[in-house]
Structure formats: structure tokens, C-alpha cells
Amino acid sequence: MDKCTYPVGGRPMIEAVAEAARGFVDEIYVAPGRNKVSGYPTVEDSPGLSGPIAAVVSAAFRFDDTLLFAPCDVPYISPRAFGELLKAAGTAVYVAPNGLVESHIFKAEAGELRRMADMLSRRGGRLDDVFRLSRTATYLSAVRHGISRRELHNVNFREDLEPPAEWVGDVFDDDLRLEWDPPLAGYLATGSAEFLWRELRAYLEAGLYSMAAHVLEDLAEANRRLAPAARALKELVGIRKSA
């Protein structure tokens, strides 16, 4: 069944997401991939990429503005969730109090995304790399901004329709802005792991545990002893698949 058109609360999920964003944007586009969604203009996937990042890169080259991204399967999202992202500097994304970056809903500037497009392609389209490669990345505490877990909740299966329990954890309860020459870009340019160790320390000190897990996965390519640490962090924050 197509998740976009699955009814939640009497209307298709995609309609709920569009309605929450409508007051903040000039136009709403969908990136349906091989599917068809009527009623909205579309953005085609960027060639050579797959998954959400294919639409993100394509939108960056089609528009020259501030862009909001969200999947079709967050039917409980509120206008406030989009509004708070737009107030933040640079690339902006929410973080759960347990240190999980909620990477599926975010704000970014088209020009910044174009700058990193080649690096994203080289990396195989990892969505979290958008934040890792941003020169200004603002990580918003969901708790501080009054965003409930329900508002950012993905509905992938029918059992997910049951509203989730509220947030757990207390390691990330304040906003963080990172303004830097992205260490990941330095690593990709030079191959030096020193850039990744610097990035890892920044994330661990801030409580951005899911981001730290992704850095550890990169480091584990040269040192397999780090792979269990990456898996442990992902399990800690509840990641079940790559982001």
C-alpha cells in the first residue's frame, strides 16, 4: 500500500504533512520516485542516487532558496515543527533527548546543498551527511522547542499508528550550533582520520550520539575494532537502519 495516500485521521498522510507546511512555503513539491502522487508538482530524483537524498540533491539544483524537507509518513507533524526549523541558522534538524538526530525532517539552503552535492554522491547518499557537511548546522532540542515525539513520528506499519510514548533520555536538552569547516569534508579531501576523530569528539561532547555512530562507522572502515562501538551507539538511540 502507498504510504502517502494511506488515510490517518480521515485524510491521506501526505495531505497532513502538506497542510502543516503550507503557511511557511511558496510551493509544495513531492518527490514520488517511481510512484505517482496527484495534486502536487513533482521533483525528479537526482540520477545516480537513491532514497531521500536523491530528492534532496535534485531540489537543490532546481531551486535557489531555503528548503524544508519532510517525508510523507509523518502525519502528526505540526506547523510549529516547521516554523521552529525556519528560525534556526544554517542547516537545521531536531534532536531527541536521547541523542538521536531526527534526520528525516530538516531545513537547508539550496546553495549549501549544491556545494556538498559531489561529496554526497561520493558517499552513496547518506542523509545524515547533509548535517555533517554543513558549514553551519543547528541541532534543535525537541524538548526545548516543545516538539513531541508524536509530531516527528514515522508511520511505516499499521502498528505505528498508535501514538508513541513521550521522549526518553536527557543527554540533549539544549540547542547546539556548529560553525566550522566540516571535518567530514576534510576527511574526504585528504583521507586523514584526524578529521573524523575531531568530529567524533564534538558529537560525543554534545550528546549527538547518532551522529557519533556514523563517524565511528567511517573510522571502522580502517579499524574494525570500532564497529561494535558504532553498533552500540545506534542501538542506544534506537536506530534500526542506516540514515
UniProtKB/TrEMBL annotation:
GO terms for molecular function: nucleotidyltransferase activity. Coiled coil: none annotated. It comes from the Archaea. SUPFAM superfamilies: Nucleotide-diphospho-sugar transferases. Residues 2-125 form the MobA-like NTP transferase domain. This is Molybdopterin-guanine dinucleotide biosynthesis protein A. It comes from Thermoproteus uzoniensis (strain 768-20).
